[in-house]
Structure formats: C-alpha cells, structure tokens
Amino acid sequence: MNGFEFANPIGWWWAALAIPVLLLYVLKIRLRRQPVSTLLFWDKLFDEKKPRAWWQRLRHLVSLLLQLAFLLLVVSALTDPLWGWQENRQRRVVLVVDNSASMRAMEEGGRSRLDKAKDSAAALVRSLRSGDRMALLSAGGRTQVAVGMTDHQRSLLKAIETLPATDGPTDVAAAVVAAERLLGDEEPRGVIQVITDGCFDDLADVQSREHVKVYGVAAAQDNVAITRYQVRRSLVDAVGYQILIDVTNLSRERRSCRVELTLAGDLVDVVPLDLEPGATVTRVLDHTSAGGGELVAKLDVTDALGTDNVAVALLPKRTPIPVILATRGNLFLQGVLEAIPLVDLRVVAEPPASVPPNGILVLDRIVPPRLPAGRVIVVDPQDSCDAWTVGDAITQPLVAEVEADSPLTRHVRLDNVLFPGARVLRFVGQPETPIRDPLDQPLLARLRRPTGDAVVLTCSLESGDLPLRIAFPVLMKNTIDSFQGNAGELRQAVATGQMVSLDVPGAETGSSVTTAEDAGDIAVVAAATADASATRELVLVSPDRRAVPLTATEGRVMIGPLLDTGLWTVRPPAPAAAAPSASAEADAVDGPGVVQVACNLVDAAESDLRPRADLTDIQGRTLASWGGQPLWFYLTLVAAGLITAEWWLYQRRIVG
Amino acid sequence: MPLFDSDFIKRLEYLSLVSRRVFRGRLMAQRRTKQLGGGIEFADHREYSPGDDFRYLDWNIFARHGDLLLKRFQEEEDLHVYILLDASRSMCHPSSEKFDYARRVAAALAYIALADLDRVSILAFADGVKDVLPLTRGKDRILSVLRFLENLEPSGSGTRLASVATSLVHRAQRAGLVIVISDLYDQQGFRQGIDLLRHRRFEPHVIQLHTAEEANPTWLGDVELEDIETGARRKVTVTERKLREYRKLFAEFLGSLDDYCRMYSLSCTRTTTEVPFDELILRMMRTAGVTT
Fold first, then answer.
1. Given a cut of 50, is residue A530 above it in pLDDT?
2. How confident is the model at residue A267 (pLDDT cuts 50, 70, 90)?
C-alpha cells in the first residue's frame, strides 16, 4: 500500500465546515439561561446526585470531538479516497451479462442464475466511481447492446433490471467481440467483465482473451432435457404422423422419467424413459389423427431448468378432400375412391360446372367439351375436349413402361398389364406420361394447367383386370395425394436463436384465384400472382403474446432470432376497428393467412448446466476496494456510527 | 387591565355575602376572645377581693347565701387579621400572574374581614417587611386596601418569613389571625417563621401559591438556571430523569407543608394560579380553615 490518493481532492474544502462547528461549540458553552423562581429544589436535586463518572464531566468535549471526527470522515468520503493500488483515472468497463436459456436455471434459494447475475451486475454498477463509464451487453441468443458507454448509473441499473431472460443459446464469444469493438483502441484500455454460468463450449477461448474477466454465478446442476423434437405427417398414411424425440440426461446420476405427449390438449402417449448419465434416448412414435394442432411433449421431471422440459411442434391438420365422381355407374371406381382416407365422395350423374374449392372432380367416361377449372381426374375418356382429342383405340394397350419417379406411379407395378379400351389421346400441350404402351402412347397422362392439373387414365375399367389389381387403388391414391401436394406434411420446429424464413400465403390471393376460375378469366389469376410480389404488413406474435409488426416481401418473411420457446405466429394485422389494442392483436392467431412456427430450446449444450471450467465467483465482486464497496462507503459508515454515538450521548444526556 | 376593576369589587361583594350566609356564626367578627373584661355577656363568678368594683357584685347570691361573689363578663373584641403578602421576586416569575393572584386573594380576604368589622393589616414582605398597611377597620376602607395592594412591586433578594414574623410579633398590639400568602420559597425554611407566630399565640393560616410551570417544568438540555430572587446561577443538564426527580421533590415539598400544618392544627391551602381566586376563597371557607 502506497498511501492514499483522492479522486476528488476538491472535497477537502468541505473541511471548512469545522469552523462553524467550533463556533457553535463555543457558543454552546454559553448556556441558555433559564430563570427560575428558586434554586432550592434544583440545588437539592443536583447536589444529591453529582456526576459520578469522569467522562460525564467531559461529555461536552467528547461531543465536540465526535462532531469533528464525523465531519472529517464525511469530508474524507467526499474526496473519494483511493488506496495506493487503485488507479486514479477514469475507467471504462463493458459488462457482458449472459441471459441465455441456461441462466433461467434455478439456484439454491429459489432464485434464477440471471437474477443473481443481475444483482452482481448492479453491485458492479454501484461501485463505479465518478467519471467511470460502463456499457451493458446481453449475450443470450444474440448480442445486444442494452446500454452504450455511459457514466449514468441509473440508466445502467434500469437496463440491468429490465434485462429479459431468454430461451436463446449462449453467445458470449460474439458478445465479447462486440465488447472489444465497443472499447476500441482508446487508452486507457477498458475491461470486459463477463457474468455467466459458464455453460457454453467456447468458455476457454473467452477466458484466454486479454482484458476479459469471466465471473461465474452458478454451481453445476443436474438436468434432463428434450434435445430434439419434430413431428411430421406419415408418408404412407394420410392421417398418420410420426414424432421424433430425443431426451438427454445431463446429470451425474441415472434418471427415470416419462414423456407425456398431448395433441391439442388431449393426451396422446406417455413414454417411460430410463436414462443413463450423459445418455440420449431417441424415440420415433407413430400415431394417427386427422386433426392437427399443437403437439406438446412434456418431461415429468423436476430439475433446475424447466424450459427444456417442454417442447412443442405443429402437426398439420388433415382436412377432408371433397371429391365429386361423375359417372353413370362404376362400382370399382366408386369403391376405390371411398377407400382412400380423407376423401369425401359425392357421386353425380352429370359433371358439375365447377370443381369445389380444394376439391377434385373425377369424370368417368364423361368428358365435357370444356374441361372445368381445378383438379380433374378423367377415367376412360370417350370424347374430345379443349385439352385433348380422342383418337382410335390402341390395338395393343399393354403397359410397357411405368415411371418409377413419378408421384402418380409410386409403388405401382403394372408389368404386362393390359389397359383394354385404351384410346390414342392427343393433348394440347406437353403432358407427363408416367404409363405408356410399347408405342409410347400415353395410357396415364398428367396435364399441367394454370387452373389445375388434369390426370387422364385411358382404360375401360369394366373390360380389363386393372380394377382387380392392387395397383389401381394405389394409383388413385397417388393421384389424389399428388393433387394435394406436400403442403402441410411437415412444419419443422426450429431451435431458439434461429432465423426462419416463412412463406406467407395471402388470404386475398386465394380468393382471387377461385373467383378468377369461376369467371373463366385467367388474367385475374396473373394479377393476383403479381400482387403476391408486393410488400405486405403482418404481425409477429410471440409465445407470450407480444405483437410486433413486420413486413413480408414477395410472399416471404424472415423472422428471428427467435429467443422464446413456444409458438410464434405470423398473421395479417387485425382490422383497426376490431383490434384496437396490442393484446387484441396478439389474440388473433387463427384464420386465413396465419402461419405458425414452433420453437424449442433443443440444445444439449445449453441444457447442460455444468460450467465448462472453474470460474471465479462473482459474489461480492465489485469495481471498488475491500468488501465490495469503495473506501468512501466505509468512511460514511463510520461517520454514521459516530453520529449515532453522538445521538446516543445526547439522548443519555437529555432524556436520561 | 387594572388589577382591581369594578368586576373584581362585585365579586368581592358576592364573596362577602356568600360567606355570611353559608358560614353564619363562624365569621371572623363574631369570634369571642377568651379575655374577660367589660363585656355584657356573663361568663362566671369569682370571689370578691378588696378594691373590686361594687357594681359587679352579685347581690342576689349575697342575699340568698351571704357570699360576696363578683360577676365576670366576657369581653368582645375585634379580630385582628394580619395578611402577610409575599412580595418577593419569585412571586412575579415568569410573569406577574402569581403576584396578581396573591394580591387578589389578599384583597378578597381583607374585604371579607372588613365587612365583618374586623381589623385588617397587610404586610408586604420579601427578605424583610417591604410595606405595611396599618390596622384598619370598616368596609369603607377597602379602597385604601386595594390601592395599597395595587401599588406593591416585587422586590428584595430573597424570602425570609422568619424575619417578617419577628417584625410582626414586635409591632402587633395584639395577637390575631395571620394569613400568609406566599410561595414559601424561603431559603431558610418557612417553618421558623410559622413557629414563631404560633408560639406568640397568633393563629397562622398558610396559603401556598405556585404556578404550573414551577410544579412541572418542561425545558430540557444544558441550561444555566438563575434564581430570580438571589441571582444565584447554576449550570445544569436537565434530562427527563431529572425532571421526574424534580417533580417528585416539589411534591415532597408540598407534602411536607401539609404534614407540618396538620401536626400543629394549622389551616393550609395550596393552589396553583390556574384556580380562580374566588373559588379558592370559597374552598378555604368550606374547609373552615380561615374562619374557625
């Protein structure tokens, strides 16, 4: 120790207050005069009980000395004294607070790691000296500058207090790089203080950096986490779906638990798990449901971190497909269509003028002159129409080639099968021909149309044995599945911290298409398509129902990084009259044009609540001197003690 | 505001009437002295001695029994009322409230006595006799009494009741009722003076006056106390505990006064200046202290 330095030596001027104190003491010697009628009683009173203790005679002097000592201590505190080893210059500090998902873990005492980190950060801020400057960065999910370089302690404390807990992954390394950039090369070099739980893999790299001090706020804790979770519709079953789930035991001990799966609130499955320390168990679960919704997996364990005990995924809903069969009687075809899941079949004698929205029209031997807009299957066409011309019967309608890659002929085996009654078809345009005869005449063709595809099968079902083969229902199911497309098969759940690009269907565009087709006006469809390239105002609703406006460009929108687990919703803004408030904006999460994304922690590194290295505990650390407080604090404390002693003396003297 | 205004005179008259009606037969002027002399009320007989006045011989007894007995009569005398009024400086501290009160009480008692045809003398005293209103008689003298009281000013460097008592017993022609109106803050003690009066066959009655502040001071802290009479000073630190002890001491002083008066069958009245003076007079009469 090389003595003291004073950060604010001007404060010594306050020592001049000793003069009035002394003057007041001198004046106090001239006591207030109190006339009394007689001294008889007072003499008796005081002569009987004279002060016994020697200090009672000196108490006025003691009082003066206490007052002077109090003044000296207060003035010393005002000068902000520093120990010799403390730097008497302005300091620059960047405080990086880890607010990643692992910081939500609860420590002993029922407080989260982030709460402890905030307390420690606030203590650091309070220990700043006059003129010191500090910036605050958060390192959860993404680096964010909460407060730039400032010496305004209240702003720093406010920013620390409002620092949110996130479910994002730790990104301390990036935050430290940003902090270094913030400090720049300006002299004197600043210090980067990192407060973290140390639950990230590049901790050693961060610790090895110059001017970086990493402090820990947490002890190692056991945890069991869902580290992967996805759901998809079955590729072979229209109402089936598969759940993929990984559960990892990040504990030192073996753990047993169960995973409860609920779909739209209804219990779907309970899977018991027995997990060795450090082991990951993977389960693929098959279930069926035409309904969709929120598929939630929940671990029934009690551990430090609750965020990774719950995962959510979105199961696309299977809606019935309205299919109209226009036939004069075909039990084979009717039976096959009825057997296909989700098909809502209606049999009519005459073909309707239009195809129902999202529906399919099946024409059995009936061909109108103008093929209706929409998705159409034509079986054994007898007449020509605007899309093709019917020619002569094929003499040898033997199946010669079946394209295995075509979605229509997937799993279809038709070797040497005759398609009796097949006729030569000349299409307008170039159709796909997944099944052809030896002369490359199409036996099954798919005609792409802007208004909806048409699939044509030229074969008399009543003449051949095709309906008796397993290939026929497979062929019809493939056709219907192909019409439905892959939409809704899989809505991938994303991990926190990721950016997500979403296709945002315009509700207006869909209705425009239907209207255009009804009117038979293709130009309207083109206009609607062009409209989709324009920017659109949307609303992003977070899992905790906070609504944020965003803009979609060319039918796509980029959101993220997503820092909260749960369901994120992108939807058109509610009409002003209907939803004037932010809460109402957040409430409207269903309807046309609404896209949802499931977001989970699913990060084994983040769920591992064991620090990767030994860290210095932040508890009690400050930027000040011993005991976590600056020297002036202790001086003020002693001064308070002295003034209390003086008060006690006064009370003893006066009140007795 | 004058000390004795017309309202005060009316209240004195009221007090006089009340004292006559309520305490009939016990007023000051109707007291009989024990001295036998030339009265008209027969007392007893004694044997004739040569030289006695024949006019007082009881001829009836001589005629019946042949004994020469002389008739004796009880002599009626005026009661001498001496009012010793404390005019020391302590009586006007912290204001003249206490002294004014004492003067009103003195005036009231003097009025009642004069109205009953008693002789009244007032002695204002401090460390000695300061002023004297000689013995006077008759209700019409009340104005001179009031004038005398009004002109009194507190003075002196102490209170010495013994000195006043000595002076009184020397100058008084006859013993009588002595009413001491004082705070009794006598540095030598009030007993000596009262004892002297008692021994000289005076009938002392003590009226002790004090203010509420004297009984219950409230100031605290480091103060320099100054005796308003002697000018003596004392630096003290007054604490709550000291105040409690002071109150206890003051109560003991008042208690010792009561004990003293009870021991010698003396009348004693203690009051603060907060009690209206006419109520005090009536209370005194009720307890028959002054008039018995």
1. no
2. very high
Same domain, A132 and A274: no
Q: Which chain B residues touch A656 with a CB distance below 8 Å?
A: 239-242
Query: Which residue, chain included where needed, has tokens 């460390």?
Result: B127
Candidate from A38, A42, A655 with C-beta closest to B236: A42
Give the best residue of A29, A39, A48 to mutate against chain B (max B CB count within 10 A). Answer: A39
- Cross-chain CB nearest to B239 (options A31, A33, A655): A655
CB < 8 Å to B234, chain A: 39, 42-43, 46
Please judge whether B240 and A39 are an interchain contact, meaning their C-beta atoms are less than 8 angstroms apart: no
Say if residue A365 is in the same domain as residue A216: no
CB neighbourhood size of B55 (10 A): 7
Neighbouring residues of A207: CB distance < 8 A, sequence distance ≥ 6: A214, A613
Domain count, chain A: 5
- Per the CB < 8 A criterion, the answer to whether A252 and A232 are in contact is no
Where is the domain boundary, A316, A339, A373? A316
What residues in A contact B182, CB-CB < 8 Å?
none
Instruction: Give the chain A residue whose CA is nearest to the CA of B219.
Output: A34
Residue A489 within any structural domain of the chain? no
Same domain, A328 and A476: yes
Q: Does A53 touch chain B (CB under 8 A)?
A: no
CB atoms within 10 A of CB B113: 32
Q: Which residues contact A161 (CB under 8 A, 6 or more apart)?
A: A118, A122
Q: What would the mean pLDDT of A554-564 be, rounded to a whole number?
A: 87
Contact partners, residue B188, CB within 8 Å, separation at least 6: B160, B161, B162
Same domain, A305 and A414: no
**In-domain check, residue A602:** no
Q: What percentage of chain A carries pLDDT values higher than 90?
A: 36
Q: Which of A594-603, B108-117, B180-189 has the lowest mean pLDDT?
A: B108-117
Domain residue spans of chain B: 6-29+78-286, 34-74
DSSP alpha helix (H) spans, chain B: 6-22, 59-65, 97-115, 142-150, 161-171, 191-199, 212-215, 240-263, 277-286
The residue segments making up the domain with residue A231 are 225-316
Average pLDDT over residues A342-360: 90
Cβ distance B246 to A28 less than 8 Å, yes or no, reads: no
**A80 and A104 together in one domain:** no
| A29 and A69 share one domain | yes
Residue where a domain terminates, one of A453, A484, A515: A484
Closest-CA residue of B relative to A35 is B226
Q: Tell me if A363 is assigned to some domain.
A: yes
CB-based contact B182:B189 (threshold 8 Å): no
CATH architecture assignment, domain B6-29+78-286: 3-Layer(aba) Sandwich (3.40)
Contact A445, A428 (CB under 8 A): no
| pLDDT tens, position by position, B81-126 | 899 999 999 998 778 889 999 999 999 889 888 887 788 999 999 9
Which residues in chain B are closer than 8 Å to A33, comparing Cβ atoms? 223-224, 226, 233
Edge-to-edge strand list for the sheet holding B119-125: B129-137, B119-125, B80-86, B177-182, B203-210, B267-272
Mark whether A287 and A374 lie in a shared domain.
Answer: no
The span from the CA of A591 to the CA of A183, in Å, is 49
Mutate to test the interface with B, among A34, A43, A56, A652 (most CBs of B within 10 A): A34
Same domain for A529 and A549, yes or no, is yes
pLDDT at residue A87, rounded to an integer: 59
Q: Is residue A103 pLDDT above 90, yes or no?
A: yes
**B186 to chain A, closest Cα gap in Å:** 8
CATH number at residue A130: 3.40.50.410
Asked if residue A604 is part of any domain, the answer here is no
- Chain B contacts of A37, Cβ < 8 Å? 90, 93, 183, 185, 211, 214, 227-229
